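Re: the request from the purification team.
They wanted to know what the chain is likely to look like in 3D before they choose a buffer screen. I agreed to run a prediction and write the result into the notebook, where they can find it.
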Amino acid sequence: MAVSPALAENLSVDVVGMYAEAERTLTERIARNLAKGLDAPGWAEKKLSEVQYLTQQNARLIDQLGEKAAAQATLDITKAYNRGGSAAASELAKTLGTTAIESAVPGLSSVEALAAETITGLKATGPRILRSTMDTYRSVISESAGQVLTGAQTRRQAAQGALNRFAKKGITGFVDRAGRGWSLQSYAEMAMRSGTANAAVQGHTDKLVANGEDLVIISDAPRECPLCRDFENKVFSLSGTDPKYPPLQTARDGGLWHPGCRHSSSLYQEGFTKPRGKTADPEGYKAGQEQRRLERKIREQKRLEAAGLDDQAKKKARAKIRNTQAQLREHVSANDLRRLPYREQIGRAL
């Protein structure tokens, strides 16, 4: 049985749900606090006086999130590693005709290292989440007061406009080297999908190596992204010491098994394994990317619903959600895609 990131993809759902729920809770908490007494005199001064209390509340939620996510991530990464090992055992039994499969001795240290790396990345978002949330709270107050003084808008209109801009971006949980801010849910999803995918691949690798195998072949994927096309049907060495084949790490360094990658690797034996013919479906790849865009749009609109200061704002957001969901249903049906409801959610996990 071949191994690919898809083998462990569903294992990221619980942790992503936790971060999505935290994002929703924090957004709703800000909106609810700002909505209290919004039309009363002295609103801005009262809201600013509550900053310390709100900061403490949010800090407790974020600390709780980090601990729960760490425990779940460790469990999920361990499961992913075991799935990879089981996939390799199935391949070995089928190819070699034996059930005497050696266990992968270095497995525990591999799992611990992968889990630690993922957890460190997730917990590092905590201070940024708190700062992003409280900076938004202060900026909504400041902007709303300024707009009212100039007579440009009512306080409610100004506050809702500022909250909407915040909700569209989401709470920034990570800023990459290019300076791009990742929303909290998007970063958690990327981190967990990478962590579980790496664990599945490592489990597969460790099991093959423990049984004296060193070569794997990369699959053909019809809806491959341009980044991975050149790796299809090529043979790689797990140890990197085979003189005939390049190290698998070179493919990984070149982008193989990036988040969302559809390619798998499987045991290769010279004279026995037959590469499959190449297929290409660039339109299918574009259709998949459009599905991701619509899913992101639905999540954005759900954040706007959470940021609504009154029933009218929430009702407007819900109407947009239904419209985009209808577009997604039509797109999935027309392009023979599988709908993934969890990618449309902003969480109910805490």
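For the purification team: Residues 214-280 form one domain.
Please add any questions underneath this entry.
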